[in-house]
Amino acid sequence: MSVFELQAFDNHEKVVFCSDVESGLKAIVCIHNTKLGPAVGGCRMWEYRSDKHALVDALRLSRGMSYKNAMAGLNMGGGKSVIIGNAKTLKSTQLLRAFGRFIETLNGVYITGEDVGITPGDMEVVHQETNHVLGLEGKSGDPSPVTAYGVFTGMKAAVKHRLNRDSLEGVRVAVQGAGHVGYYLCKLLHEEGAHILISDINEDSVLRFEENFNATSVAVDQIYRQDVDVFAPCALGGILNDETIPHIKASVIAGAANNQLADEQQGNTLKRRGILYAPDYVINAGGVINASFENDYDQQLAYRKVETIYENLSLIFECSDRENCSTNQLADNLAREIIAESSGAR
After folding, report:
1. pTM here?
2. Which domains does the chain have, with CATH numbers?
């Protein structure tokens, strides 16, 4: 398997494979670009179908982080790490500390944080071996609430653009994924008066949403087919593909998941169908924006910065209409321009 021949490889600066026999750690760190600053991106722990699937995920996610940080106006490059394995059965203090030691060998070119399968508490363990960690308790902390707030803000921008509504009151939203971000997002939607449909593989989590937010549960393979105003993918990536897009009835797609498009051409398909897509790395940037305030944390300033997601998306939507190109293509072009024009300045 040649890394350089993979479609997901995008002139990444560095790809590091990490292995520790004693703890069972198998991890991959992908550093996409550091022109804007050190590569920043969370660590995901997942039981991938193969090592190749893990590598492709890390490559795609790290490029997304470069674009996310550029579009959010942060002095950060893009990187991502994945730990291969079941977080419920394989994760241990020994494994997390081994991972931290590998991060330390990169000498600050990559800074990690929490993502799927990893908690802020896990990052505290990693922090025992390296200072190159964001999202620690007592500082920026759990990124989930702030990521959700950014998605909520971006969803309002999309609904304003497509449905000409200033509020989400009465708007029907199908949320795929009842994890941490999904929970905080639904809390905001419920408080705004939106009607929520929810799906997740964990039935206990769905029950919690039904009880707390008066949400209606939907089968996992039916959530994208619902007759709603907004579809909010908040689980794993690749949900917008040849199989699902023909069945989507929503006018807006605005969710927290990374890499929602199975491939970039799906953005054109959505545009032809008249579906407004909020590029994932723009709308879900709240967590990393919050983490950028880590060393001198000010919650009020962090949330104020997250609110710029509304303006960023509004600009993308307007330019997409004017130039008749997909929103994801437009966002990619803008992000690449920002990185190219940085001249390596940090």
Report:
1. 0.91
2. 3-66+75-127 (3.40.50.10860), 144-338 (3.40.50.720)
